[in-house]
Amino acid sequence: MKKIVVKFGGSNLRRPEDIDRVANVVQTYNRPLVLVVSAFYGITNALIDCVQAARQGAGTISALAESQDYTLALRALKKEILEANIADPAQRAKTEAALNARLDQLTRYLTGIHYIGDVPDFVNDAILSYGERLSSLLLTDVLQSRGINAREALPEDIGLISDGVFGNAACDFEASTGPVSQALAGDGVVVVPGFYGVSRDSKPTLFGRGGSDYSAASIARCIGAESLDVWKDVDGFLSADPGAVGKAHSIARLHYLEAAELSYFGAKILHPRTVEPLFDQGIPIRILNITKPELGLHPFTVIDAERTVTRDVVKSVSSSDDVAILKLHGPGVGFKPGILAEVTSALDRHGINIKSVLTAQTAINVLLSRDHLEAAYAAVAGHHIPGVVEVSRNDAVAIVAVVGDGVLDASNVGSAIASRALSAALAGGVRVTLAAAGASEVAAYMLVDRNDRKLALQAIHDHFFNAA
User: Fold this and answer.
1) Domain segments of the chain as ranges
2) Which residues of 118-156 are buried (b: 16+ CB within 10 A; e: fewer)?
């Protein structure tokens, strides 16, 4: 029997009693599983803050005290979780000792970066992996206390090998598939911390923010899983963010490409890279809602290779304000060869990822994450590029996308989707900065004034889903 890989994210792990809910789900499956777990909600952000404080105040007593205070708070939180979920005092004491041993390792890392006055990349990745390491150990012991045959397996122990890129690694499937499938074979439940793999020289390497989804997908590929089940606290992918529009509805089925684009353009259900390992393997992703235990193992959204074009084509409208525009001005920048190559090379040297590029005769618009805008501006503005007379930047924008198989179809219906979305936004009073279609076969998007993001979502969603 093939195993199912089951992913529990930080949204499932906010309070001590949430562990009980996760354990109940595991019992509902009643079959061998691989569980991939994230850190408790907020833990990774707090670890990032600790590293940042250590980097800025290396060697100072206050920064060292802040790290020590944080590890003390973590010990108190884990003790509270244990008391809420493990009744047997002896089992609870054993688990607490094991958690404290891991927290001691974390404390040594945090103390060490104060003394050396630096945070090497491999140390940064090691520190940030501890949120998941604590969750996996804790969940394993809670499952065991309930009589479930469970064991923990760390990425370094199962051979989940990465390409060695710190901070944003990818899985090396050629190196990982054999060892991972062998290590995770057998009956019972295996609990694996998500978010990181290890390089060939055994150093932890993170799979990027939100990378536990990618961890789970990579493991699912390695073992040839029956499915990847992702548990959330919402009803799967929706037609739009329910906090921004009224009457958003669940989407029962999506193609891998549609799910990837929705995630890329701001949907919080999956990490954008989750479908990457599964795309050519035909392993479905199922999105389930942990807040509705009465529905059992009912998926709200199934993501697979089946392509479906709905009557009105658009399946969802997604948005994000994590976008900014770096614009290069010049009378011939869109025509002169070599300019774009120089820009992309300069940004690559500074580790800056490009989301998209839109060109015209007199301007090149480079779309970036907002956090990268200032560094990108400094890299390009300080680098003389013939033909570029001015470099400007704009972070007061948001991106809004319509996604659905058939959006760029050559038929009359398909070719009209992008223009209909744009017309709906403009009719709703949205200030549109740029609009584009063609980069993806299942998506078209526009950049709008950031203050108009919700207005754009509502106007476009109403046009496609709530029209009288």
Assistant:
1) 4-233
2) ebeeebbbbbbbbbbbbbbbbbbbbbbbeebebebbbbb
**pLDDT, mean over the chain:** 90
Sign for the CA dihedral angle at 86, 91, 96, 99 comes to negative
pLDDT digits (tens, 9 = 90+) for 175-221: 999 999 999 999 999 999 999 999 999 999 999 988 999 999 999 99
347-351 long-range contacts, CB within 8 A, separation 24+: 347/376, 347/379, 347/380, 349/379, 350/375, 350/376, 350/379
Residue carrying the six token digits 């939180």: 77
Q: Does residue 400 contact residue 420 with C-beta atoms inside 8 Å?
A: no
Beta carbons within 10 angstroms of residue 31's beta carbon: 12
Match 């972070």 to its residue by tokens: 395
Phi, then psi, of 442 in degrees rounded to 5: -120, 10
Cβ count within 10 A of residue 97: 9
Which one, of 330, 331, 391, lies nearest residue 366 by Cα? 391
Token pair belonging to 279: 């795309």
Measured between alpha carbons, how far is residue 237 from residues 262, 293, 299, 407 in Å? 9, 18, 11, 18
pLDDT tens track for 393-406: 999 999 999 999 98
Q: Would you list the DSSP string of 305-371?
A: S-----TTS--EEEEES--EEEEEE-TTTTTSTTHHHHHHHHHHHTTPPEEEEEE-SSEEEEEE-GG
Fold of 4-233: Carbamate kinase (3.40.1160)
What distance lies between CA 396 and its chain's CA centroid? Answer: 23
Distances (CA, A) of 113 to 58, 66, 98, 165: 7, 13, 24, 21
Tokens standing for residue 185:
């074979």
Nearest Cα to 25, choosing from 381, 309, 297, 389?
A: 297
DSSP string over 53-121: HHHHTTT-HHHHHHHHHHHHHHHHHHHHHHHHH---HHHHHHHHHHHHHHHHHHHHHHHHHHHHT---H
| Rounded Cα–Cα distance for residues 326 and 391 (Å) | 7
User: Residue written as tokens 């920048």?
Assistant: 333
Give the rounded percent of residues in the chain with a pLDDT score beyond 70. Answer: 95
Cα 86 from Cα 94, distance rounded (Å): 11
- Asked if pLDDT for residue 146 goes beyond 90, the answer is yes
